[in-house]
Task: structure prediction
Amino acid sequence: MKELLRMVNISKQFGDFYANKNVYLTVYEGEVHTLLGENGAGKSTLMNVLIGLYQPTEGEIYLRGKKVRLDSPKTAVKYGIGMVHQHFMLVEAMTVFENIILGVTHDSSFFINRDKLKKEIQELADRYDLEIELDKPVTEISVGEQQRVEILKALYRGADLLILDEPTAVLTDIEVKGLFQIIRKLIAENKSIIFISHKMREVLEISTEITVLRAGQVVKTLKREETTGQDLANLMI
Ligand code: ADP
Ligand code: MG
Result:
């Protein structure tokens, strides 16, 4: 497998407090790499460093072997990193389609090309089994569909590393099945997923590799097949 991301010795301090301390994380192409840890373990902070929302206190980030400086979320998007946050960030007054194209620059022929653009987005959605209704206001769609819109939005911006921060927390069991089907399609096309969860059953089902975080530090990184739920639970606490 080819290395996509390497985070090296990342620390993030808030005042004297270390939310992340000397964290190493390597993610390969076409894998689901899970961050597992209790509340407050530092999972979201590490991902906010990765998308350029926070600057690390120390450490380096490499993408495909090249050192990068992720100074803003815009830069992270340029490098193909997308994140679906725990709390979705869609604009309520807009439709699904408008949310997806928001902030992506289009030329002056945009209005002529609106239908073409819609078709492109629908094709992208179909390719990954993302069931969405482009013309609906986001206030009228389910939470599960809002999540699919966030995923599609990231893919439309060219993400090949997709961070899903506790995506199953807001979903029903059936919706979780649907999400996992989408994740499997994504990795089949060589996308990489960083999946955040503390639900052991899900983690064991979907992960390729698992990194356990505790109190801001990496306890261990394991391949799915070389661990069990009991091992992971012991490492978490
Ligand atoms: P997780 O996502 O694993 O639940 P977080 O990364 O959100 O954990 O938080 C890790 C720790 O860092 C927590 O103790 C949290 O209170 C603290 N923390 C997170 N963000 C900030 C912030 N902006 N300022 C101060 N402390 C923070
Ligand atoms: Mg979190």
Notes: The beta strands are 3-14, 17-28, 32-36, 58-63, 66-68, 81-84, 161-165, 192-197, 209-214, 217-223. The CA atoms of residues 33 and 105 lie 32 Å apart. The longest strand covers residues 3-14. The chain is about 35% helix and 30% strand.
